[in-house]
Amino acid sequence: MKMSSSFFFKSGGKSSKKRKHTSESSATQKPMSEYAIHRPKAVNEEILSSDESEYNAEVEGYPLASDEDEMPQDKRLRLAKKYLSEIKTQEAEHFDGLKINQNMEQRLQVEYLESIGKLHRNIAAGVIMCGVGLVLKHKLHHAPICSQVLSADGRYLYTGAKSQYVLKWSTESGKVLAKFDVTPTREDHDTGTKRRSHVIAITLSTDMKFLALAEGGSHIQIWCPVTMKHLKTFKGHRDIVSSLVFRKGSHELYSVAKDRSVKIWSLDEMAYVETLFGHQSGVTSIDALDRERAITAGGSDCSLRIWKIKEESQLIYNGHRDGIECVKFLNDEHFISGGVDGSIGLWTTLKKKPLCMANQAHGIAENGVANGITAIAVIVNTDLVASGSYDGYVRLWKVIQQARKLQPVHIIPISGFINSLIFSIDGTKLYVAVGKEHRLGRWWRHKEAQNSIIVVNVKLQYENTALT
Amino acid sequence: MSSSSESEMASEHEESADEETQAEIRQDLKTMSFEEIMKLKEELGAKVYKEAVLGVKSAKTKKSKTDLKRLNKNRPREMSAKKQVPFLGAELRIERKNQSQQRDPRFDEKSGDYNIETFKKNYRFVTKIRNREVNHLKKKLDEVEDNNEKQEIKHTMQRLINKNVEEKKWHQKQYTLKKERAEIQMAHNEGKQPQYLTKKERRAKELVHQFEQLKRDGKLNKHLEKRRKKNAAKDRKRIAIE
Hints:
Structural class of chain A: alpha+beta
Shape of chain B: elongated
Number of helices of chain B: 10
Protein name (chain B): rRNA biogenesis protein RRP36
Subcellular location (chain B): Nucleus, Nucleolus
Number of strands of chain B: 1
Shape of chain A: globular
Number of domains of chain A: 2
Largest sheet of chain B: none
Helix content of chain B: 55-70%
GO biological process, one term (chain B): maturation of SSU-rRNA from tricistronic rRNA transcript (SSU-rRNA, 5.8S rRNA, LSU-rRNA)
Strand content of chain A: 35-45%
Organism (chain B): Drosophila lebanonensis (Fruit fly)
Largest sheet of chain A: 4 strands, antiparallel
Helix content of chain A: 10-25%
Radius of gyration of chain A: 26 Å
Number of helices of chain A: 6
Distance between the termini of chain A: 22 Å
CATH class of the largest domain in chain A: Mainly Beta
Family (chain B): Belongs to the RRP36 family.
Oligomer: heterodimer
């Protein structure tokens, strides 16, 4: 097992690139037996030639650089064969005959998917228990916490609240490492009145080079998360910016605002790229994975739209009865949405209607109105989903795609408005941003809640990774 | 200068930029300072700027409706992402404007049945409009010189005045009827026997009222003259027939 993981990832050395190539070629290759039958001679010849070249080089005293064109390919071949033989021996311990090849095929596929980050794991069934761990509080965040973002390696957490400060926390120690001031007041360019800054959206690029935040107005501020310096302010939007997201592994920023538009910004050039239209009411949330596609939740127009940016078109999904608050990609083909009427929808990109809709997922309040979903979190490429509202519980759900169901798995009692939820990458921790008020306004207050970030430790029992 | 090149760029980025237009754009950009170019780029967007300056590389065909047609009806709808869309409910607001201009109260069911009293009460303001019209026509009469036109203006003035007089008479009559009814009601309340008026009595009251009115205004003599003439003419006719 160890051999296989190191086979795919090795930092440093020329061999890293080549190894990746061999892994890909090996994944698409036919099973071991066929390989062995078809080309035994060629293998021997190639080995001979490589040995020869090495021998020649040594004898003549020339450096290997002259024969390097041959070397990498031969080396790749040699490593691929070694890898396959290893897997075969490992499988041969358990199974015999034809089954070896089938298992090997499956295993190669699994490891390949894992290497590119697209392996689906079913972990929701293995949630044993959830216990509240650290509670992160700070006097600069005495106001309700509105937004949070976790760095790609999971070591740092940046949080924004209804105050002008953004705090950088270390997730291991739970201590504040740094803070920066996002202008205490911003000027409302329509009326000219001064309003306090509320950091209602934050996002980080995967390589930790840029941090983008929405300060409650129509401007987007770009900061460097490492040096804590302000880089630029983007001023394109015409109304309040409600959500931001970076495309994974790139420096493209997607932003949505109450003015019904989706804007794309390139941070490599620090410039605005283009605007996409289509929503009929202010957009409330946006999410994106590594493809050039973004999904937005359209607030009161009850539609979700996937924007194909290269083709300049949009796919429209209807099915929510009332407004939609938040949306997250579960993997490239599925996504989860949460609505104002408390309904959580499971969707696939190929169907205009949801696969499954859990109505009134967080119960009904005393006045007979359902508790709306305020936050959703998802571990990408798995089946575990968390949803938060203001009924006093964070609920964990399991996505069963074949049965088209959203099954409740666990509940965590946390009182207050759950303004944001983030899972850590391995799924062992859930960061819950709790506030006494809703992140967008002060409709009512939960006095017993505390403005803080609660770290919930999720104990998982890992099942065998099944390819679905 | 920068605004003209902006408009040029914005309009030409849709068509495939020809060599000539590209050269023109490049000329414009040469004359602008670097700051201006940066501002232009920020305003238009990096994509538009690149296309205009470097030319559209891929043959970009605009997506027609047939390109965006879905395979089956269960798939999501696909639409272009570049067309601006109004906010939800914009169509309703425009609809209402169109509707309100086209109601004819004579034929509209929402107006209800014709009731003379409510009609006269609701449209009482028209007398004021007629008075204003009469004043306007008086002024016009002084300006206009053609006799025919003067005649026409006099006719219309007379018609308007007559209409107003009729309105006044009608309202006066209603007033008297109302008073009568009030007296009868009072008599009922007090317990006495109410005095119902016959047509002749009503007519007599009316004439008395008219006489007093004429006396106040001083037009009594003229009125009596007119009446005597009329009666004389009638008598003559009667005698002629006999």
